[in-house]
Amino acid sequence: MTLKLRMLALIGLFLVMIAGVGGMVMIANARDAVRAEMASALELGTVLGRAELVRATGPDGIAALNRLGLRHLRFTVAGSREEPAAPAGTASAPDWFTALIGASPQERRLDGAGGLVLRVVAEPWDEVAEVWEDMSDLALAVLVTGALLLASAPLAVGRALAPLSRFETGLERLSVGRYDFTFDGAGVPELKRLGRGIAALAAKLSAAKHENRRLGQRLVEVQDGERREIAREIHDELGAALFAVKVDAGRILRLSEGPTGAVGAAGTASEVAERARSILATAADVHRMSRRILVRLRPALLDQLPLSEALAELVGDWARRQPDIGWTLDIGPDVAAELDGCDEVLRLTAYRLVQESLVNALRHATPSRVEVRVAVLAGRMEISIADDGPGHAAGTGVRDSGGPGMPSPVMSSPAISTPAVPGFGISGMAERVQALGGALIIAGADGGTAAGMGAGGTRVTARLPLPQASAAQAEQVA
After folding, report:
1. What is the DSSP code string of 274-330?
2. Is 353:433 a contact under the CB 8 Å cutoff?
3. Of all helices (H) and strands (E), which one includes residue 62?
4. I need a surface site. Which of 35, 108, 294, 342 has the fewest CB within 10 A?
5. For the whole prediction, is pTM greater than 0.85?
């Protein structure tokens, strides 16, 4: 059943209920009125009857009382045959209505001189007929009014529900990607609030669509750039190395096939050894280059170790390379269990964030201390990399990428620039974090950390919702 039909049925039900309750109230009042009228009429008849008995005029006096035309009253002598059911010429009500009112004649007997017994009868028929006439007129008025109301209700309900059709049209436009939703609310405050909410949702969907398109273009650019870089390295370095191996191998083959004397044999052996050493050196270069390309494509540690251990190995590797810097890695046991259960995309993003941030800190900040902290709070992972170098003075800039609807003030620091992984610098990190529904904030360290970090320095903080986090938690990451 449509909403319009439901509202019309509800209006009809209300009319029936109002008519029913009104009828019940009127019948109850009619009962009381009839009883009071009969009691009053009986008292009046008693007074008149006693006065007539005192006068002792007999049957002629009783007939005179009846000729007075007193409403509801009838005077008879006990034992007489004339006992009409109702006064002549009075209107009558249906039997079922009379029974519903519960009215019946009331009688009082008065004893007079000479054994005369006067019967005073109060009959309700005229009063019941009057009530029936009033209720019939009222019922007719209610019926006509209800019919007019029901006839005009579809038009009124249709006009009241007209804004909903505009809502439906607007939502259909949203479903096909047209986000230009506007609605004035038709003067109804509730509809205005609903329209503003849908308009705000449309604006967010439009922003998200443009952001997704931008991220898609950025992803294609990064992929193309990565492929060009790998192709260049393979062509320039791997191709040259393989050509050198081919040249050296061809020379060794020719030397091994040619005739040589005693002196020539010694010279040939020396050249063969030199060529073999060149091939070994080239093979070592090719191996290093292949490892470098593989690390850029995917860190091998993530395939061999859990995320917490991979981060520990990454920080430990830098600690071995830079022993003069104080390194701190803070990952609690409970946090490590949470991290190791993350999905593949989140593990790779967390690892790349720490990797890129450490490279930037060492390349630009010249720190004496570097701290990496990983925590899991309220269904989200929070990664913080802080250093005490001069690369980013406290409060000089913030880069916050929190997704559509989140604040995004941007003031990039000149001390953080060149990415260690092509396509995954500051902008690459922000885009990947945003794609996962998180936020990336880069700012000054603001007074240091619990590890004794001095004032100044740079702090990179990433907040990423965990897969089991609810949608509401993911929206509150920033």
Report:
1. HHHHHHHHHHHHHHHHHHHHHHHH--THHHHS-HHHHHHHHHHHHHHH-TTSEEEEE
2. yes
3. helix 59-67
4. 294
5. no
Q: How far apart are alpha carbons 357 and 364 in whole angstroms?
A: 11
Whether the Cβ atoms of residue 442 and residue 458 lie closer than 8 Å to each other: yes
151-208: per-residue pLDDT in tens? Answer: 888 888 887 777 777 777 888 888 887 877 777 666 677 777 888 888 888 888 888 8
Q: Report the alpha-carbon distance of residue 461 to residue 427 in Å, rounded.
A: 14
Write the burial class of residue 230 (CB in 10 Å: 0-12 exposed, 13-18 middle, 19+ buried). Answer: middle
Task: Name the amino acid, one letter, at 271.
Answer: E
Determine the Cα–Cα distance for residues 215 and 196; give it in Å rounded to an integer: 28
Phi, psi of 310 (to 5 degrees): -65, -40
Among 274, 297, 320, give the residue marking a domain's end. Answer: 297
Strand 73-77: give its sheet, edge to edge.
73-77, 117-122, 106-111
pLDDT digits (tens, 9 = 90+) for 355-398: 888 888 888 778 889 999 998 887 788 999 999 887 544 333 33
Two structure tokens written together for 453 = 């970090």
What is the helix (H) or strand (E) element at residue 231, kind and residue range? Answer: helix 189-233
- Between CA 443 and CA 353 the distance in angstroms is 15
86: CB partners within 8 A, 6+ apart: 92, 123, 125, 126
DSSP code per residue over 422-444 = TT-SHHHHHHHHHHTT-EEEEEE
How many angstroms separate the CA atoms of 72 and 34, rounded?
A: 11
321/386 same-domain check: yes
Domain-embedded: residue 332: yes
Q: Which of 436, 444, 439 is nearest to 416 (CA)?
A: 444
* Nearest residue to 2 via CA among 148, 155, 146, 158: 158
Q: Check if the beta carbon of residue 277 is closer than 8 Å to that of residue 252.
A: no
Helix axes 307-321, 333-340, angle to 10 degrees: 110
CA 317 and chain centroid, separation: 46
The reply to whether 29 falls in a domain is yes
How many structural domains compose the chain? 3
Domain-embedded: residue 394: yes
Query: Is the same domain home to 364 and 287?
Result: no
Tokens of 142: 């209610």
CA dihedral over 250, 251, 253, 257, signed as positive or negative: positive
The 10 Å Cβ neighbour count of residue 411 is: 11
